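Hi V.,

Quick status before I head out on leave. The structure for the redesign project is tokenized and pasted below; the design run finished overnight.
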């Protein structure tokens, strides 16, 4: 089928496009390129030998979305487009509500305009907030601590109510834990603008010599080695989770599912695994805890397995080895020198 992938030029979207094309689907990337580079489309084509259709547009543009859905006879939408920086959402909350909440609303309205009902939505484990218990099951209380997290929860609630109001929509809400890694080819990967705020891209830039050392935010947490524990999940496993979710919507109208491995790894585990993968030491220094960080979180994965037959298969070593392949072959990502961009 033909699937519109909003934000399909971004990190998770581009990997999911590869997975969809390789499964025999046609892909229409709908992206305003505010956090991505057109080069990714050429790379997707190199990997899959198929050229995705690309429409440069904003998800807040309801008319352009409905025209695109109709023109390409799309049967489903995977909705990645949105802004994702926790820190930026604190300084610019309205920007986040406009992009993430209004963008999602205009997308759903456009889908309704043209009668496209299947939707997979990118949510985040951040909707749970500080864990009351672990592992985080899908029915864990929701208490996001940032405007970014709240935009995800608002959209989840909007989609839940839309699904309850009509049987014309079939909706899968996927809550990602910590997506890392990249396609095994090393042709596509994560390419953050400016200084990476997430751990894996930061480590990768240290490994390639772009930054002197990793700052480890806190070594006094109540965890075995004192550093924060997260559930890192390979982006290609996530991509296959989207395919499974889309297929599942032929059987069930509404699902909310975690995508994680169920295994927690500490910051030091990740630094050590990356050292092993790249064959050199990764220098690090311990620094103060980062505001808003929690000691530990990881997913309950039973529901994803039960509903979707999905489990993450790739290990920490694969996540690091694939990231290293991408970063060492593309030290400046898709060609933009990040420090020049942010200056
Ligand atoms: P990304 O920034 O790499 O990709 C997002 C894409 O959406 C970019 O190509 C950007 O240009 C595009 N975009 C943003 N706003 C748009 C708009 N208004 N109209 C059209 N296009 C727009 O981010 P990602 O890491 O690939 O994340 C994809 C989705 O998954 C996001 O919704 C994010 O909140 C969610 N998510 C990401 C993570 C993570 O760690 N990366 C974790 C949980 C959830
Ligand atoms: C962050 C976001 C979260 C978002 C997720 C995926 C915050 C507070 N949370 O989650 O909302 O859903 O990214 O995009 O921003 N760390 C270091 N040094 C670094 C970077 C991180 O020690 O330079 C540590 C952190 O303290 C944490 C772990 O590494 O323990 C993972 O951090 P990160 O990759 O930023 O992800 P999260 O904080 O889990």
């Amino acid at each position: 089928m033909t699937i519109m992938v909003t934000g399909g030029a971004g990190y998770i979207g581009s990997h999911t496009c590869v997975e969809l094309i390789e499964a025999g689907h046609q892909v229409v990337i709908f992206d305003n390129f505010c956090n991505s580079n057109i080069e990714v489309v050429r790379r997707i084509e190199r990997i899959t030998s198929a050229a995705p259709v690309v429409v440069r547009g904003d998800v807040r543009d309801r008319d352009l979305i409905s025209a695109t859905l109709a023109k390409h006879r799309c049967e489903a939408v995977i909705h990645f487009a949105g802004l994702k920086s926790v820190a930026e959402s604190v300084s610019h909350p309205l920007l986040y509500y406009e992009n993430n909440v209004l963008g999602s609303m205009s997308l759903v309205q456009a889908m309704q305009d043209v009668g496209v009902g299947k939707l997979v939505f990118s949510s985040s484990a951040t909707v749970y907030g500080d864990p009351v218990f672990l592992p985080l099951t899908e029915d864990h209380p929701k208490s996001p601590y940032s405007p970014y997290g709240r935009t995800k929860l608002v959209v989840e609630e909007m989609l839940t109510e839309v699904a309850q109001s009509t049987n014309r929509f079939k909706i899968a809400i996927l809550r990602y834990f910590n997506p890392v890694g990249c396609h095994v080819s090393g042709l596509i990967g994560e390419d953050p603008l400016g200084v990476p705020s997430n751990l894996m891209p930061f480590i990768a830039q240290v490994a390639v010599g772009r930054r002197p050392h990793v700052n480890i935010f806190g070594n006094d947490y109540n965890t075995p080695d004192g550093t924060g524990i997260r559930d890192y999940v390979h982006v290609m496993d996530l991509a296959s989770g989207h395919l499974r979710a889309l297929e599942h919507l032929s059987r069930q109208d509404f699902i909310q599912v975690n995508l994680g491995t169920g295994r927690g790894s500490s910051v030091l585990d990740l630094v050590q695994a990356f050292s092993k993968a790249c064959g050199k030491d990764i220098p690090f220094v311990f620094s103060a805890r980062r505001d808003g960080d929690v000691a530990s979180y990881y997913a309950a994965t039973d529901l994803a397995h039960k509903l979707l037959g999905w489990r993450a298969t790739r290990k920490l070593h694969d996540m690091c080895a694939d990231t290293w392949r991408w970063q060492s072959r593309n030290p400046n990502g898709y060609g933009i020198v990040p420090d020049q961009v942010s200056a």
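Above is the designed sequence. The first strand starts at residue 2 and ends at 6.

G. will cover questions while I'm gone.

Best,
W.
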